[in-house]
Write a structure and sequence with these properties.
With 117 residues, the protein is α+β, with helices and mostly antiparallel strands. It has a domain of 76 residues. The chain contains 3 helices and 5 strands.
């Protein structure tokens, strides 16, 4: 009897969590939901790069870092093409250059963000 009550309680909890995700907005950015909102104080400028930068001069950033998250969100809104390199600069961050590569595979894609050393 107690086992049946436990399973029904777990079912109610799972349905409740699913309902919250479903009705929190169909276009909700789950990355923003779990890892915080985007820093909009930086005005990013994106330019396509013809020549691939030397990876020896670049440091790969974690996708959870604030800069990387802001860069790939900005690039997604700017409709960046897949399998291309982009250079990101910002007037607020003088002498700092960021590079991003959108790696596409079928319908999915992954952003790799690098900072110039």
């Amino acid at each position: 009897m107690k086992r049946k009550e436990l399973f029904s309680m777990i079912g109610v909890i799972l349905v409740s969590i699913g309902t919250v995700f479903l009705f929190s907005g169909c276009v909700t950015d789950f990355n923003g939901l779990f890892f915080g909102k985007e820093d909009t104080s930086v005005n990013w400028e994106m330019t396509a790069v013809d020549k691939v930068p030397s990876l020896n001069q670049l440091e790969k950033l974690s996708n959870l870092s604030k800069e990387a998250s802001a860069i790939y969100r900005y690039a997604d809104r700017a409709h960046a093409e897949g399998n291309k390199w982009y250079k990101f600069t910002a007037p607020e961050k003088e002498k700092e250059e960021y590079y991003a590569y959108k790696k596409t595979n079928g319908n999915s894609y992954i952003w790799e963000v690098y900072k110039k050393r």
